[in-house]
């Protein structure tokens, strides 16, 4: 083969040009970066500048024969690529030149190009026929700093909790039978209580720290131990204890809350009925007031009106039972009552029937059961009467006059639980991704026949694309949920309608995302992912139900959509046009923006990576979907259709409104957090992560954006390419990112996540 | 409220017009249908014709006040809608008129409109404020005829097998421990063998019926019993027995095949290694030939070179072991050898080490294990030498000279197993959908406050959209796999490259589809879907691994893509342009078609429901993706990049080629089958099902079609609407369709699939 020669100035540019022209992504602004470098590089003669500039013309790209010569020049140099260098490509370039006996020194301009264009070794380590000294992680980012950013001022308590979980009781093992699993989980629960972790969200006088946000982080971490433990913990301290804390009076709190926090009183939360899964307002259990005895009679009227899937049902002494409260023959709506289930010897009390729900897909360490009540009498003192009670004369009274508002205020106490469920799902995603990414950083597969070592799984583009955007989404959703819990915790007694809408939406999109992330992780680990010892199997089965419980996602998204639409409500009823016209005005503004062909096909990376573009696109979608849904409903109603039917006819549309609302909320909150990061390097990283997530979300609805004319073909394609590119740019940091999730080593027991 | 009046001719048209204008889907061709009816309706005066025609102008639609009047006219009639009428809307129209004391009779023209427009009661039963007599199933199609269409000439044997499964041994129960589950499954396996079902695919002289197609249907039905049983059955009779049948010689068949078929010899199939999951060619186990002893020494060289996930490993006496065959110091590539594992007392033999794989996500009734061999000696007679053996002089000989071709020929025997895996996955989808649809046909939820009965789940548009297109896809994939098995079975000894490519692709898309269908079914059943008693949980966990085993989907799709690209191969090497130009010509033709704005925005239902449009769109995608992938690879290679790296850089693109290829193949084969159905009514039904599936597949890649200019915005939106519409059109038949899957009642044990 003929020996290829280049001049001293040009030689170090050859690897850069080869990389640039092997890539499909060279945008106009990127060409400007290289041009600037060439201009300012003093080591170049004017003649050399001209040659290099010629090779940068996108309209007239270098001939294949030229590009092939570059490749030969690189190969013939016998240079070795060392990925761990600070500027691996620039250092490699020096070596290539030196291999051809051309004496060159460090080139700042090329370093500038390498940094500015975000060229990563894994973009080009396949391209040269040279020896490569691989580096699995760039070590540019420190997991412990990431952990600090993720948990903020909660971190010291979170770390104390992680240490607490080193206790051997929390060591993960397989318990094939539900009886065995339940015994272990009950023991763990009591252990947590004795450490003071269960009462964390309660007021200090009841053994707590009055800190709901750290409580949620504790809940999240329990998913790393065992999904059953997290759920059992949530039922005992969050749902049962929370119902006493939030719906009860001070006498009830004094009597029960400390005992709940230390598990001397085990309780359950009996809301759902077999016949009424998602329709709490339609439950049939009744609590009828008997004035002469000042008592309530709890009763399950029909065969399918029993309480269903009640966690802790087999271990509990008491239940918070939701029932229709009947006073003087009038139904005052759903209220909560404390109903004893068992005596001190754990015998079920008269009139109460409890059945085991049996084996489930997952969470077999949770004792779910069905409960029937047959004319069970409890004193009026057991009515959790903060929002509605019965006075001494036997009359119903409530601080909230509107029954509808009262109902939603009571249910508003469930919002904290919904945030925890989303956090639990996200924890399952984080842990599954941690395991699958660690596996991908160790496992090698196939190879080029000439190479001895097979490639790392994570270095396959398809593998990057299936895992890295999901790691990015975990971080976005993490901050969204942190913010949601902050908003909820700091406004516990105010109007919860807004946060309820927000949480309904976030819970839905995040639990669905997590299901997919866990599934993708399982598949990315192949057969190893199928073995229970590697943990993903249990995370998958345990978190699967999170899309259903504490509110079915489909139902919750409609709730969110109705929240979004509520501004239109008056219009539907009154026929007034003011609010519609106002929105219509905004729509017209969008149209003006999107009709601009420069915007519609703007494909440079500055634009595509700009969070303003992401927020604009997502917000545009939300507003347009909301507007069209409102118009459709309005038109149906104008034609005489009852509003329930009009909503039904737009049901699939409303789900999209709910999703769009939630995605834009998550990203907005994420970027607000990102802007507050003070360290430049880390802030840039989080913006990059935000870009990957946002482009991925936009890409999922690309057909809609194209239909609307908001995206042009070129831009839509560019977004797809940028997702691949960003995934590869984050590849060198992926090990640090997953370690930054902060899952303690002692809980990461999966053998495939270790070196082997 | 004022009483609304219409003339005698117009009155019966009012409900039709109300339905039509409440719907967003009235296309030009549909307006023509109504116009024709009006023209030919003798009961109308010319004046009435004019009024009705006026109401059909899309450019100037009836005012809301008018439409509202129609609604009032309907409500005031106090007519009752009876869905079970042959022409429910036309009959209802008569009643509406009669309610206003207008004397009308049956109207053939309105019947024609109702039929031609495909108006279903569930399109409008919500629209009128009238009493509705619901009908859950239209009973228009008979499940047993559907069953005949699905199983064709195999049906009598399939039915005999279904009856065989009535034996109490096959009754589904929960076995929490793997030991308990394995014991039951082994007993069931022997029971099947004694019924002659295991040997079904073997030649008659070995107790079989030489019928691979029926064998595959048996395998599929075993998924309805238990996933573990299906897999254990596949390992014993398909993989182990199949290796003897297809890779062995007649002496080996005589010695082992009958015993395998009656389970007196239990065997396993030891191919996969821990270190080499998907890369069979890279396995490290060796079989070294010792000429002096005429024996082979089987050896596991390294710690991670053990055989992994080997089904039947704990029950087997013998294994078909894949190893690198070393003859005279030369590696002749991967070959299969029969290696005894245990003695008659079930003691593991010297040099063999077997470990239980432990608990898995699912399939815990299958005894998967790891196997190590330490210098285990077997006679040369144990080499399955159909495609490569060692002669008396100790020299390697093979009827296939090219080692590459030899390797793929041996692996070609796995194709049958891959079809079975896809069939097993699809069976899990069918059963899950059967359960979730039956649940949706029984379970009621929420309601309009004025109605007493809550709506059936299946009557929610979101519920229809999540389940009905998946039922349609099950039918499409069913026929695709029937055809694949036919092609494979009828060409067992010929060139298998084509069918291998086809099956690699179909296995991937169908197992992924099934995972989603099972997941959707679980969620559609809410908490009930999470209980193991309702079966979906086990179907989910058991079939989850089907995306990985018998070839990881990501790897298989690349295999399929490379098959598709093979026409280009010579071009890559030689630089000749002929084949590229040929394809380029086709591309240009596509461009001419797609540039036609009439085609790009053709939204009438005739066009969108036409299978020619579906096939054209899917084929267009395949060809364009193939062409662009080929061009990208070619360009990389021209720039000097090694071909392995060029493929790697286009990896995500190639996955899309593989998927596109498989989808178009499935639909093509489906429509070929559909055209052969002789009964008009059923053929129409299957075309309708094909439309729903095809539009759904096209819709999933809508952003790509829009980017390419193949679809215009209006058409893309229309496709989305048609998917919803077709789902609702199939809604009245969904009960018949799932019953048509033929899952026997005695295996459908889920309590939620029964009346409750």
Structure description:
Two copies of one chain form a homodimer. The first copy, chain A, is α+β, with helices and mostly antiparallel strands and 756 residues long. In chain A, 54% of the residues lie in helices and 9% in strands. The first copy, chain A, has three domains: 13-133, no CATH class; 269-406, Butyryl-CoA Dehydrogenase, subunit A, domain 2; 417-739, Butyryl-CoA Dehydrogenase, subunit A, domain 3. Chain A contains 30 helices and 15 strands. In chain A, strands 3, 4, 5, 7, 8 and 11 form a six-stranded mixed beta sheet that branches. Chain A has a three-stranded antiparallel beta sheet with strand order 6-10-9, with no helix packed on it. The first copy, chain A, has a two-stranded parallel ribbon with strand order 1-2. In chain A, a hairpin with a 4-residue loop joins strand 4 and strand 5 (295-299). In chain A, helix 1 (13-22) packs across helix 4, helix 10 crosses helix 12 (227-247) and helix 15 (415-440) runs parallel beside helix 17. In chain A, 53% of the residues are buried.
Can you tag this structure with a few keywords?
homodimer; 756 residues; alpha+beta; Butyryl-CoA Dehydrogenase, subunit A, domain 2; Butyryl-CoA Dehydrogenase, subunit A, domain 3; 3 domains; six-stranded mixed β-sheet; three-stranded antiparallel β-sheet; 54% helix; elongated; AcylCoA_DH/ox_N_sf (chains A, B)
Question: Summed up, what is this model?
Answer:
Chain A has 756 residues and is of the alpha+beta class. The first copy, chain A, is built from 30 helices and 15 strands. In chain A, strand 7 and strand 8 form a beta hairpin.
């Amino acid at each position: 083969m003929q020996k290829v020669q280049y001049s001293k100035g040009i030689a170090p540019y050859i690897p850069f040009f080869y990389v640039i022209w092997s890539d499909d992504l060279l945008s106009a602004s990127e060409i400007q970066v290289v041009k600037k470098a060439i201009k300012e590089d003093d080591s170049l003669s004017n003649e050399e500048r001209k040659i290099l500039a010629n090779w940068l013309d996108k309209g007239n790209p270098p001939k294949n024969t030229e590009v092939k010569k570059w490749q030969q020049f690189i190969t013939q140099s016998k240079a070795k690529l060392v990925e761990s260098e600070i500027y691996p490509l620039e250092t490699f370039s020096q070596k290539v030149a030196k291999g051809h006996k051309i004496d060159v020194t460090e080139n700042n301009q090329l370093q500038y190009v390498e940094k500015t264009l975000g060229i990563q070794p894994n973009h080009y380590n396949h391209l040269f026929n040279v020896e490569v000294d691989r580096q699995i992680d760039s070590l540019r980012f420190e997991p412990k700093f990431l952990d600090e950013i993720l948990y903020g001022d909660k971190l010291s308590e979170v770390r104390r909790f992680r240490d607490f979980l080193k206790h051997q009781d929390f060591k993960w093992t397989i318990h094939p039978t539900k009886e065995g699993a339940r015994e272990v989980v009950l023991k763990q629960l009591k252990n947590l209580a004795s450490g003071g972790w269960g009462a964390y969200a309660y007021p200090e006088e009841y053994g707590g720290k009055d800190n709901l946000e750290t409580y949620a982080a504790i809940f999240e971490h329990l998913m790393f131990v065992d999904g059953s433990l997290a759920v059992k913990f949530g039922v005992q301290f969050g749902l049962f204890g929370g119902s006493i804390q939030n719906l009860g009076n001070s006498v009830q709190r004094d009597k029960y809350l400390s005992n709940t926090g230390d598990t001397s009183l085990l309780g359950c939360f009996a809301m759902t009925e077999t016949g009424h899964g998602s329709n709490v307002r339609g439950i049939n259990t009744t609590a009828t007031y008997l004035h002469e005895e000042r008592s309530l009679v709890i009763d399950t009227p029909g065969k399918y009106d029993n309480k269903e899937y009640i966690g802790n049902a087999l271990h509990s002494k008491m239940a918070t039972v939701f029932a229709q409260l009947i006073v003087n023959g009038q139904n005052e709506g759903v209220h909560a009552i404390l109903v004893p289930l068992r005596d001190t010897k754990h015998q079920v009390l008269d009139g109460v029937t409890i059945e085991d729900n049996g084996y489930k897909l997952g969470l077999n360490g949770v004792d779910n059961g069905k409960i029937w009540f047959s004319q069970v009498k409890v004193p009026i003192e057991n009515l959790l009467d903060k929002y509605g009670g019965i006075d001494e004369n036997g009359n119903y009274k409530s601080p909230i006059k509107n029954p509808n508002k009262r109902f939603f205020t009571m249910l508003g106490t469930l919002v904290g639980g919904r945030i925890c469920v989303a956090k639990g799902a996200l924890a399952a995603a984080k842990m599954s991704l941690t395991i699958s990414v660690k596996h991908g950083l160790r496992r090698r597969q196939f190879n080029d026949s000439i190479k001895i070592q097979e490639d790392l799984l994570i270095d396959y583009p398809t593998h990057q694309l299936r895992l890295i955007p999901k790691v990015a989404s975990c971080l976005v959703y993490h901050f969204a949920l942190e913010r949601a819990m902050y908003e909820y915790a700091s406004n516990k007694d105010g109007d919860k309608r807004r946060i309820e809408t927000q949480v309904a939406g976030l819970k839905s999109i995040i639990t669905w995302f997590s299901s997919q992330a866990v599934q993708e992780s399982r598949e990315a680990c192949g057969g190893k992912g199928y073995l229970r010892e590697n943990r993903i199997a249990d995370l998958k089965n345990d978190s699967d139900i999170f899309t259903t419980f504490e509110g079915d996602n489909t139902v919750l998204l409609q709730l969110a959509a109705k929240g979004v639409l509520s501004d239109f409500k008056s219009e539907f009823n009154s026929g007034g046009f003011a609010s519609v016209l106002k929105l219509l005005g905004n729509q017209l503004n969008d149209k003006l923006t999107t009709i601009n062909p420069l915007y519609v096909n703007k494909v440079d990376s500055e634009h595509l990576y700009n969070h303003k573009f992401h927020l604009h696109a997502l917000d545009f979608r939300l507003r347009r979907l909301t507007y069209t849904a409102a118009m459709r409903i309005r038109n149906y109603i104008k034609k005489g259709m009852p509003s329930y039917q009009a909503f039904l006819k737009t049901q699939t549309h409303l789900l999209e409104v709910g999703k769009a609302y939630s995605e834009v909320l998550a990203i907005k909150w994420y970027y607000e957090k990102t802007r507050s990061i003070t360290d430049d390097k880390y802030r840039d990283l989080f913006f990059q992560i935000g870009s990957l997530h946002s482009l991925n979300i936009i890409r999922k609805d690309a057909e809609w954006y194209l239909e609307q004319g908001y995206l042009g073909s070129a831009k839509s394609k560019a977004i797809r390419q940028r997702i691949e590119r960003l995934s590869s740019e984050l590849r060198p940091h992926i090990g640090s990112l997953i370690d930054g999730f902060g899952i303690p080593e002692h809980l990461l027991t999966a053998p495939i996540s270790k070196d082997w």
